[in-house]
What does this fold into?
Amino acid sequence: MHSTEREQHILDLLKQTGFVSFRQLDREIDASPATLRRDLERLSQEGVITRVRGGAKLLEGALENGSEQTRLMGVPFVDNVARRIAEKRAIGQAAAAQCVPNEGIMIDGGSTTLQMCPHLKGLNLQVLTNSLHIVGALLPQAGTRVNVPGGAVFREQNIILAAAGDDSMPKFYGPKLFMGAASVGPQGPMQADIILVAAERRLIERADEVILLVDSTKFEEPSGNVVCDLGEVTTLITDTGISDAHARFVEAAGVKLVTVEPLD
It folds into this structure.
């Protein structure tokens, strides 16, 4: 079980009564006591819980007014953006090559989709994105028009997401959606946080084509909340490090697989 899954499980238990004992965590979560203590310490430092004798207590108002409104489960953007950058640059370039001049597209926030931006210059696209990083990268391009949805800003990922059930997305049609994922398995692309899943589902419902951008490490330990069936993805772009076994299940789902060499 990944740390994001463990943290979510801990929070789910805390929501029930406001307190969880260490004994209960040890019984219900498949992790060592040392790992669970590190999870509790991390949540404590983030202002979600407080450590008490024998367990942990949910801080009053933490989930309503603080943590879950500004923080998502998963790796913060700043920690992820420089990982496997050569692969991400190649994937971004290949994704941009899928775009047609003057069309409308949607780009979901992520460190790999961000790498599309330099290659969109001169295409005069209209772009809907929920990523402030992507907005910043596209604004200097005079011919690129940028649209953003309404919602709250999640600082660690620097993205804008609406609350569940609130569809404040502009009435925008972009036939192609470019999106990333925390991991990919035969079940489909996955994210650590259900808030991201809901937001991406709203984008998928508007798209004719779903183009998934992931480096080959995202196939290694698939886990999380499934965003959509793998068969709903039209094209998957990854690097040449993808294994034959992973390539087979992608193609078996009817997905067009594009592999690229990392860029220096």
Observations:
- The two ends are 34 Å apart (CA to CA).
